[in-house]
Amino acid sequence: MRLFGLTVLTMIAFAANSVLNRMGLAQAGLDPVLFGTVRLMAGAAMLALLSFILRGGVPLGGRGRLIGVLSLSLYVFGFSMAYTALDAGIGALVLFGMVQVTMFAGALWLGERVPAIRWAGALVAFAGLVWLLWPGGGVTLPFIQAGMMVLAGIGWGIYSLNGRGAGDALQATAANFVLAVPIALILLLAKGMGGANMAGLLLAVLSGAVTSGLGYALWYAILPMLGATRAAVAQLTVPVIAIAGGVLFLGEVPSLAFLMATTVVLAGVALSSLAR
């Protein structure tokens, strides 16, 4: 029961990232690059603190560090820019679907054996994403922002693939966040501060320190107890929770076409995740 409760709490934290980003950008009007930068800085501070307390430090070197830092940066800023226009639930679904597609493609690229049922699941999930993103397919999405979320999903998928070889997941994630901060500051200086307000900045800090920093740390703590299959299936709930959060906190009402596309994507991901 304790493991179940911790898993539910972690999935809520993941979905809350979508809701908090959408609130910070659409309601508080914070600049997306500023939001992403503050989120990275708050996450880096929280993860570094946890690493010092639990592991005694944050080693910044290591195999695959450059890929980890760049893919994390792509995810964070693609995520923030996408939520200037996408609803929380739609954004979470596009992100989650693209993560699965990217990791599937990565497995093929690395020469891993892919069972037939996982092929079927990937094709079903991809078909649902095509339905969702196709112009005139029943769901109207802003092209640029949808594209940014696709890039964010690719970034997080690469980040996840790269992180499989990390010796200590908490330290590796802390190092990636810390090293991504200078990239974020360069982007912010190049673009300009944009609109800044206390409400938006607090939402960015909350997203970075709590739902990203603590959320990721909790996830790494329970992953060994969940196992790969249950962990993958648990993440199926993230878009659904994000849709509910969008309805409750942002007044977003999903269309029937979007709910149908959501069902197709999640069914495909479930097939892939449950493949033995």
From TrEMBL:
Major localisation: membrane
Membrane topology: Multi-pass membrane protein
A GO cellular-component term linked to this record: membrane
Entry keyword annotation includes Membrane: yes
Protein location: Membrane
Transmembrane segments: 34-54, 66-86, 92-110, 117-134, 140-161, 173-190, 196-219, 231-250, 256-275
Descriptive protein name: EamA family transporter
Species of origin: Thalassovita mangrovi
